[in-house]
Amino acid sequence: MNNLVEPGKDLRRRSLHEELTQTLRDLIVHGKLPPGVKIPEKDLCDAYSVSRTPLREALKVLANEGLIQLEPNRGARVTAITLQDLDEIFPVMGALEGLAGELACINISANELKKLQALHARMLVEYRENDLESYFASNQKIHEGILAAAKNPTLSSHYRSLSARLQRARYVANTTPARWSAAVAEHEQIMKYLAARDGQKLGDTLRLHLENKLAAIRQYLLRKN
């Protein structure tokens, strides 16, 4: 159970429900609760000093996001990453990310751009140090930063309703060295077009970035099966 407890986690900083939900989401996305495993409810309650009630409320949220499946009288189980799921989600997310990129080029402020460039520089260091988990966190912040810079709440709402499943798939895709290297090169292009405020090229690159990740995850699932 020690690997389920993240250092520095304090479940009282935000609301207990929000923090517990994000903690469990992170465990699933990063593979510490892998596909197919039954959620160890008692162990998690003990690890985070919470009762079953907030834990089960968090599990309901994750079930709505498609990360777990609630089984009547049998608890909850982490869902598998399937090709059917990917074929459903990735085209929608690609369209949303492409639109976010186009709008970000119109609406991003100089300060927002500077922060994203700093994140990108940090991500490159994490890539060179082979620190996948830190790289993934910076990578996700960049995508979220582009989404925020689009300044379109409706777009953000639809994106976030699907993003948890996408994050898990992205994490799997980056585990192959060739795909990781290609993803970094694509991010260089993303930052180039964002700085140039070229919405068409940025939107196209973000969509291609997601299509390439989908292809990598397909290969991973086919090898696994």
TrEMBL record:
One of its GO terms (molecular function) is DNA binding. Transmembrane segments: none annotated. Keywords: DNA-binding, Transcription, Transcription regulation. Residues 14-81 form the HTH gntR-type domain. InterPro entries: GntR_C, TF_FadR/GntR_C, Tscrpt_reg_HTH_GntR, WH-like_DNA-bd_sf, WH_DNA-bd_sf. Pfam families: FCD, GntR. The keyword Transcription applies. The keyword Oxidoreductase does not apply. This is GntR family transcriptional regulator. The lineage of its organism: Bacteria, Pseudomonadati, Pseudomonadota, Alphaproteobacteria, Rhodobacterales.
